[in-house]
Amino acid sequence: MAARPETARRILLYWMDATMGFLGIVFALLAVLHWTGGAISLAHLAAVLACQAGFFGLFPILLRRAYDGRPRRPSPLLLVAGLFAAGALALLPHQVLTDTPSWVEVGALWVSVAAIYLPLPLTACVGAGVLGLTSAWVSFVTGRSWSGVLISQSLSAVAMVAAMLLWRWLWWTIRDAYDGKEAKARLAVAEERLRFARDLHDLLGHSLSVITLKSELAAKLATKDGGRAAAEMADVRHLADDALAEVQLAVDGYRALDLDEELASVRAALEAAGTRCVVDARADGLSPAARALLAWAVREGGTNVLKHSTAGRCTITIDGGVLEMRNDGVRGLPSEPGNGLRGLSERLVTAGGSFSAEPTPTGEFLLRAAVRG
In CATH, what is the architecture of 259-370? Predict the structure, then answer.
């Protein structure tokens, strides 16, 4: 379910965007109020708003660059954002600094976004310098205690840095978990292919080697000893028949699915992808052939839920020879069935059963397969 990690990422980043947007609007309104009250000039207001727009505009870009990758060096935009933040602080008179929320929080915000680009020791040094300078400046223009301002701003900065690092760690954890699941699935497919290749090699390698040698020998004997050449070719034919029979047995073994194992496998795969799966199967009285057909239907249905839906819940019910798989992850309008569903339908119909797969009026997707017991 590739959409789920991306959805988590968007929710996380959009939530932080909304928070930064709200703070930007509040600070802009405060500056406008001081301009309407005559505390600052229009030129002063324009400069303040420009610095605000630069800082809050770069903030989402810096977040996305840090969340989508693991930056090994600070982005030049980090320095630009710091300059905008410094400009917003320096341009404001002391009246604005006494408002709540304080403009000095912009410095703490800048330190928090810098923390996701810089190593923690360097972040601590930069943060100490930024907060020390801004606290000294606030103390100078307001007359407040420098140590009191520094402690207050340091606590805010530590909280923001911790939150920023926690948010990023949560996203990386979600992404790494999903990537690990994808890698595990690819590894399972690769291992199955290797196993199939080994089985074919074991089955055919020896037989084909002997067939090749006997064919070469028969070709040499054809002009010298026709009887022996005919005998060698008869052996070649028997060897080819035996090899073909072994391959057919091997393929039949791959085609034969166990219904209980398939139900457990599909349930585990769906729940690993975040889809709750409920299984209610009563198929003890079915013949091996009918159980194998239903196993194929379960496998194909589970594959389609994983590949083509955003289901949060899937129910698998088997009552006698009737299988129903329902999921709530219908996306868009129904399209033409894929090769898997067409092949499954042909297999069931050929065996005297029936098959359907389509959305329901209740907003679910229903796969229904019926077989003769």
Answer: 2-Layer Sandwich (3.30)
